[in-house]
Amino acid sequence: MMGVGAVKQDVKAMLLAGFAGLVAGACSMAIGEFVSVYTQYDIEVSQMKRDEMRTNGAATENAQEAKKKKLQLPNPAQAAMASAIAFSTGAVVPLLGAAFISEHKVRLAVVVVLASVALVVFGGVGARLGRTSVMKSCARVLVGGWMAMAVTFGLTKLIGSRGLEM
């Protein structure tokens, strides 16, 4: 939304870009999470098999323990869905805010403010779930989000000001 907002004042173009970004981002996050978690799952299962071969499957306790460990491994599909839902929830906040504001510069400011609030909330939730420092997590997520918005806005503004027709 910031990229389109850098070169277009039309609310429809910004909302369309926001929706496209929401869908593309959610899909990208979900697929990335699925691949990452599935890879970790494969590694863990392979390690369990190696451990079992090393002990020659000697003890029934080891086999039962391996089954318990396998059940405790993260589910790639659940991780993908959680990632897609989290991304979509965060992306819909500035999208909804922009939908109700016709003035271009105000709309850009609202998008930045709402995205910032969403970033802080998600940083805090992530810190709570991970039992880490809330302040550090919120700051890290907020600064990363600001950097992404600034780069997107700046590069699109640069390309748009060079006369590239859209």
Q: How would you sum up this structure in a few lines?
A:
The protein is mostly helical. The protein is 86% helix and 0% strand.
Q: Could you name the ranges where pLDDT drops below 50 across 5 or more consecutive residues? A: none
> What's the total helix number?
6
Strand content: under 5%
- What class do helices, strands and sheet pairing give? mainly alpha
Oligomer status: single chain
Helix content estimate: over 70%
Into how many domains do the coordinates divide?
Answer: 1
Profile the largest sheet.
none
Distance between the termini: 15 Å
Mean pLDDT figure: 89
Shape: elongated
How many beta-strand runs? Answer: 0
Whole-angstrom Rg: 22 Å
H/E element sequence: HHHHHH
Transmembrane segments: 79-101, 108-129, 141-160
Family: Belongs to the CCC1 family.
Subcellular location: Vacuole membrane
InterPro entries: Ccc1_fam
Task: Throw out a few tags for this protein.
166 residues; mainly alpha; 6 helices; 86% helix; single chain
